[in-house]
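so ive been stuck on this for like two days lol. basically i have the seq below and the ligand is magnesium ion, smiles is in there too. i just want the complex predicted, nothing fancy, no docking runs or whatever. if the output looks off dont worry ill sanity check it later, just need somthing to start from for the group meeting slides
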Amino acid sequence: MSKQKVIALVDCDSFFVSCEQKRNPELKNRPVCVLSNKDGCVISRSKEAKQMGVRMGEPYFMAQKEHSNAIYPVADHEYYAQVSYQVMAVLKDFSPYVQIYSVDEAFVDLTGLERLYKKNYYDLGVMLRERVLEEVDISVSIGISSSKTLAKLASDKAKNIDSHIYQINMCDILNVLENTKIEEIWGIGRRLTDKMKRNGIITALELVNKSDSWLDRQVGINGIQMRHELLGEMTSPVINEETTPKSIQNTRAFGIFTSDFNFIKNELNMHIHTSCARLRRYDTKCLQVGVMLRSKDFRVFFAQKDLDAPTDFEFDISKIAVELLAEIYNPNILYRATGVVLEKIGEQGIEQLSLYKDSDSDEKKQKLTKCFDKLEKKFSKNIVKIGFLK
Ligand SMILES: [Mg+2]
């Protein structure tokens, strides 16, 4: 038998609402319902809106009539995609194996990280949740178990508990399955539910008590896989997507509150360096840079600008980023974090600009950055502390 895996399913809580609250912190702890930009129906609700009785899919005019004190922003999927990239970036920084399942969900293979972080798997979940909350200001629920199907089931349970972390251990599996209706299992739709019920199968435990050959006849290969996944055997690995990201984001809390411009600038330059190294790993360049500042009281300040030409070079990006930082910086505010967002990745930019390109200096930049990357590969991440930090 293969070595047992530990899989987490990280699921953002009421994702669209959480994004709206991240953008506008005044919406926190209030009844918020995000409306579809197509038909105006409610597609995401805050806890408070749920408690008020607003229903999923309810049209705006009805919800508004009954619950006029709720707030109804219209979905901004472009922004939600940006926040999603930020969440996924934290997960990818945490584990090398991350499979993005939807805009607000990803499987993370935690196997072996117990030793790396010197924490048990439950505490790793707690740590990951705290990191996403701290760095992206998004609350997530995390299910942990030994297969994707069980991790998914655990994440559904995690949503309803205060810790937002739920782990299904090997010894608890049968007990959990006994208390799980088959329609709650990931991948079992309405039709299959009806079919199973006609065969007297109501709970997940009754499903796993069937033989592989019976499930093969009734459902096919997927039925067998489902049974093994429910018993805690992983049948499909967490597939790492190595496609070029649309956006690269790096941010981290300082650990202190500060108004010191030079300190913040140094932190920003460190993130720029990490982001550029990532661009180079994907052999691509970016054409837009964004700078984020988060205040002690969680207000977010953001400015972005297009670059003159696509680049993967720290010094080019830093020059613009520090100007942006100066624009949004206020010496009277205490800050807790800064970050950089590189966008328009892989875009060519305007051809004419190449006329102004100095190919000699380009070559020098390339040599220098290759040197950074080699050093870091050999030693450790962020060993390179670049002179421009001063
Ligand atoms: Mg979700």
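The two ends are 54 Å apart (CA to CA). Residues 11-12, 15, 104 surround magnesium ion (CB under 6 Å).
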